[in-house]
Design a protein that fits this description.
Elements (H helix, E strand, L loop, with lengths): L1 H8 L1 H7 L24 E2 L2 E2 L16 H21 L1
Antiparallel strand pairs: 1-2
């Protein structure tokens, strides 16, 4: 949030937003577009899980259970790798 606020107040961006009017408010941005729009969820040294991984079911606008499940699956995969050494 803080970084986005800084971005909006940068002189190069603020000139486009000046005198603007909010049309609606929202709590978060929704990434939608199916499997092709999902980010790579695993990379060397890290995982994207939960809402950051784009696991929202757009048809039902539900994501809590899929976000939690991605965390559970990630924990299992990390544990298996740690157990292997």
């Amino acid at each position: 949030f803080d970084e986005f606020q800084r971005f909006k107040h940068h002189p190069a961006i603020a000139k486009y937003l000046r005198d603007g009017e909010r049309l609606s408010f929202g709590a978060r941005a929704i990434a939608k577009g199916g499997l092709r729009s999902l980010p790579k969820q695993q990379f060397l040294g890290g995982l994207l899980i939960g809402c950051d991984a784009g696991t929202l079911n757009m048809g039902k606008i539900k994501g809590t259970h899929t976000a939690m499940k991605s965390g559970m699956l990630s924990a299992e995969a990390v544990y298996q790798q740690l157990a292997k050494g």
